Amino acid sequence: MQSFIFLIFGILIGFVVGGDVKELSIKGKREINKEDSVADDKEESSIKSKTLSDKEEKILKLFEKKKKISTNDIEKLFKIKEITAKKYLKKLENEGIVVLNDKQGKTSNYSLK
User: Coil, helix or strand for 101?
Assistant: First the structure.
């Protein structure tokens, strides 16, 4: 009789511990999935930084109409300051999309590479 009680008690403990192990396993999988999701988000933001903004896309479309574009053209197009226009063109230059042709005072002229 006593061994029967121990058997039942052991089975109950096994179910309780087994349930906890299963729950821990599920929690562990959730944590791993969260870590993967965070890594994917970081990778995706890295990829996004390599893509062009809407304004940069518009600048490239402007090159379809004109062979050379100046910082003044960009200032007028977007109604922005010269420094901001230079930042857009400099980024495109750094990505190897455009090339700086010449500087005339404050104005810089660029063309497609």
Answer: strand
* pLDDT range class, residue 47, cuts 50, 70, 90: very low
Distance CA 113, CA 95 (A): 10
- Could you write out the three-class secondary structure of 19-62? HHHHHHHHHHHHHHHHHHHHHHHHHHHHHHHHCCCHHHHHHHHH
Whole-structure pTM value? 0.54
* 61: pLDDT strictly greater than 70: yes
**Joined tokens for residue 10:** 């052991």
Burial 14-46 (b: 16+ CB within 10 A, else e): eeeeeeeeeeeeeeeeeeeeeeeeeeeeeeeee
Phi, psi (rounded to 5 degrees) for 8: -60, -45
Listed in sequence order, the residues at least 6 apart from 102 whose beta carbon sits closer than 8 Å to its beta carbon are: 108, 109
Task: Please give the pLDDT value at position 11.
Answer: 75
Band of residue 79 on the pLDDT scale cut at 50, 70, 90: very high
